[in-house]
Design brief:
five-stranded mixed beta sheet, six-stranded mixed beta sheet, Helix Hairpins, 3 domains, 336 residues, Beta-Lactamase, alpha+beta
């Protein structure tokens, strides 16, 4: 059976029998779980909980712990909740929706991480910027002097890496408060995707990676401040190219990168799918943190900067498993 909840929508009530099966479900719990009350009544309480958290919640309920925090499973993902156990079978238990508080806490933590990162890199920008500019100039001079096709290819690759490092320094400088802000302007989806793909073309060719992009022409433009949306997509593409190169060192049909554009009522959604090794759920949650996954060829800052740039525009970065394996990174960019 179901009933009206006597408290606000962020608090949901339920009742279980002696076998911990749901016998009553309040309307707020039905809404929180994203399922009709009729589908929930009769099911074990633990089926409400996301599978990774079930052993911990089962142990807490076995020990009669009064409150336990966990993830409530939904068809579209999960929500953080605090579950207060009923004192006896048939009496009401309570679920408190913690998603808003958790989300705000995670955002505060990310802001703190970026603040610490900005403080750490301020001096690095100055110390590395000048020598890097000199190296770039010497590479350009060497290009003018010739030396054959192989030398030209090598110098071209070296120049690309210098420019990439300069771009990274500029972004770090902006987060360290050393770069002036830019005016906001609308940016269409097609040039956004085409520009980012153009900037990784050398890496795609070098790793023998095929790519495909599906961008409907009628999508509304998105908010853009400076190069933020292009830079965010560029970092995600570079991450995908690295993952594909590691998983498919010889290239081939399996080494394919896909960019698909879609939208909801408020934002453009760009899905970047790679057929690399992918990441476990816990690793996906940590991947955008500073220096996570740092290794040769990986700065450990790409997804950190991508997420920060998106959030500065009111957007989001999300990681999930790609259909068929690999990693899907979704960039959510609000419409202009």
């Amino acid at each position: 059976m179901s009933g009206d909840d006597p408290v606000g929508a962020s608090v949901a009530w339920y009742a279980v029998d002696a076998e911990d099966r749901l016998v009553e479900v309040g309307a707020a719990l039905s809404e929180l779980a994203g399922r009709p009350a009729g589908e929930l009544v009769g099911r074990p309480f633990l089926e409400l909980i996301a599978p990774p958290d079930r052993p911990r919640v089962a142990e807490a309920r076995r020990r009669a712990s009064p409150v336990v925090e966990a993830r409530l499973e939904r068809a579209d993902g999960w929500r953080w909740i605090a579950a207060r156990r009923a004192s006896a079978p048939g009496e009401a238990g309570v679920l408190l929706d913690l998603s808003g508080a958790r989300l705000e806490g995670e955002r505060d933590q990310r802001r703190d991480e970026l603040a610490r990162l900005a403080a750490a890199v301020g001096d690095v920008v100055h110390e590395v910027g000048n020598p890097l500019a000199a190296v770039t100039t010497y590479v350009q001079l060497a290009q003018r002097q010739g030396g054959g096709v192989e030398a030209a290819d090598s110098l071209g690759a070296a120049l690309d890496e210098c420019r990439r490092a300069q771009t990274l320094l500029r972004r770090l400088a902006s987060f360290a408060g050393q770069a002036e802000g830019s005016a906001e302007a609308p940016l269409a989806a097609t040039p956004l995707v085409e520009t980012a793909l153009l900037l990784v073309r050398r890496r795609l060719r070098a790793n023998r990676i095929a790519w495909a992009a599906e961008v409907p022409a009628d999508l509304p433009p998105v908010r853009a401040v400076g190069a933020a949306p292009v830079g965010a997509l560029l970092e995600v593409l570079r991450n995908a190219v690295t993952a594909l190169g590691e998983a498919h060192p010889d290239g081939g049909p399996a080494a394919t990168l896909r960019v698909t554009a879609r939208c909801d009522d408020e934002a453009l959604l760009l899905d970047v799918d790679d057929a690399g090794a992918g990441l476990e759920p816990g690793a996906r949650a940590r991947a955008p943190t500073p220096f996570y996954g740092q290794s040769p060829g990986r700065t450990g800052l790409g997804l950190t900067l991508a997420r920060a740039e998106l959030e500065s525009l009111g957007g989001e970065l999300a990681l999930d498993a790609a259909p068929g394996g690999g990693l899907r990174v979704t960039l959510r960019l609000p419409f202009a």
